[in-house]
Design brief:
Helix content is 63%, strand content 10%. The protein has three helices and two strands; from the N terminus they run ββααα.
């Protein structure tokens, strides 16, 4: 099990997610982001706009995801 925060995953808060795999972690982060979007949370909306801009370039998005996955893999298991 490893832990990362919303902020570490490109979000806007320090909510912690715990998962066995990066894919599980990414799914939790996405779900949280959608919840915050639904609440109209300004800081999360700003983070989503930044992510949307990144997604315009598939190469940049892939590089970003690869970096986050490497960060996850480098974390010590709990």
């Amino acid at each position: 099990m490893k832990t990362m925060t919303c902020r570490q995953l490109g979000g806007a808060c320090d909510l912690e997610f715990r998962a066995e795999t990066f894919e599980e972690m990414a799914e939790m982060s996405k779900k949280h982001g959608m919840e915050m979007f639904g609440k109209g949370d300004a800081s999360h909306l700003e983070a989503m706009h930044a992510m949307k801009a990144l997604m315009k370039s598939p190469a940049d998005m892939t590089a970003w995801m690869d970096g986050k996955k490497a960060e996850f893999e480098a974390l010590p298991a709990e």
